[in-house]
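Memo to structure team: turn this sequence into structure tokens by end of day. - J.P.
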Amino acid sequence: MPNIWQIKEKAPQEFTEKFPELPPIVTQLLFSRNLHSQEAVDEFLLPDYSQDIHDPFLFKDMDKACQRIYQAIEQGEQITVYADYDADGVSSAVILNSVLTDLGAQVAVYLPHREKEGYGLNVVAVEEIASHNTKLIITCDCGVSNNEEVALANSKNIDVIVTDHHAFQEKLPEAYAIIHPQAPGETYPFKFLCGGGVSFKLAQALLKHVSNKFALKDSESKEKWLLDMVAISTVADMVPIIGENRTLLKHGLIVLRKTRRVGLQMMFKIAGLEPKEINATNIAFAIAPRINTAGRMDHANQAYCLLIETDEAKAASMAAKLNDNNSERQKITENIFREAKTLDINQDDKLLVFYKADWSTGLISLAANKLLREYNRPCLVICGQGEKIVGSARSLEGFNITEALTKNKDLLLRFGGHPQAAGFTTTQANYETLIKNLKKLAEDQLKDSLFQNKLEIEKKIDLEQINWELVDWLQKFEPHGQGNPEPYFVSENVLVSQARKVGSDGKHLKLELAQNNKKIGGIGFGLGNIDLAVGHNVDIVYNININEWNGNREIQLKIKDIRVK
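Reply from structure team:
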């Protein structure tokens, strides 16, 4: 099915005139990202840590949470940090453990086993934590939907501070404090922090609190050295890279490139990453997957222990083991993906369901991501047999999968997630009814047009408008992510002056393109099935990149789609 090329709404002339110092292409990018005021533009193009990071005490429960934590520290109470097992949760645990340890707390970290315990707080874990005389639990990247478990902790005289950002139920848990940017009545101005971002706000507040004994300079230093983990969690959890998230990520990347964490240094080395060149793409495709691998293939403690390790030899050994597990994870995920594609499903269904009992519960979410991209429609990947059936869901914009699960919560043992990504556990007895209900909701809510992939194009431009000045401006829009995608442009009536297929299987196209007096190179990954010859006229959709080789730098188009005239 061909892509739909959809050019974004053109910036009005009066908007462009508000920023006469900016090129029209730049004002178009700002307008399409809803950056309409001078203040918003300045924050986006020039993120300033001193001005664009909000006061953590704007969270309505923040001071209450800090007072309880300092009470625990002063009275020598045991604090347990309970975090999710993914890269966001593990990063959150590292952040809070770092600051609590520095403040002199007696702190333990508990990460649940993905397959044996599942997502969020669980009753068995609360019982175990209570047996170790914990008086305060701080959740990271989970907890807001764990009403029963929080009530159990309360009954054992354990206070619970929830830090989370996930979807919540109608009734919030009766926690001592809830730090959640979207909680009902929450006054915090930025709503899209990831779990690591929320944990960082708590850490930041503890370091700014009146009870903090560190000098101001030391507190500020400790705060900023936490930003490496914030950068990882922000990219890993795919939250919108706008507002405060953009500032945290921009400065977090600076810290990540010179991180003091020996475990990260060893991870970079074995992954072949040059620390000074690390960017958001490296986090997304090299760093976060390795952290996630621990929870998927073994236990999240494997990644957590690496990230807090201070001995170089031990860290190198741990990083090597994690790297091996990551390679094995990739193989198994690919096998699940291939097996799923052989199953007898109706590809015209608006919700596709792939089930095989012996698939790994830790890897079905990765297969769901791949299947979503393959079929461009909501996908459930499900495994397990006997009493518990476990599923991972991935959806398109237009079908809130977590909302759909909420409507069927009576059929679920547990569930949680975001509008387009969720996990759930059900029973064998409820499985068929659940799938029937979810398919009915998808059928009612989704229109066929949503299944056709849309390329959202910023602006139609000519090749002669592409120059180093434009490249410099485009680099100011990095790092990219949700809410700030890498911009696509379209150029029409472009002449193919050179064309050849490249790659071991000829899957890619290497082109030289000409328009008027301008020639520029292009690479079309995965477009080798398009028959192009010199002399063809084409319309192209592309990103603008820099190609570096043998010490040379040249502008190159990364072509996403081609239409032959």
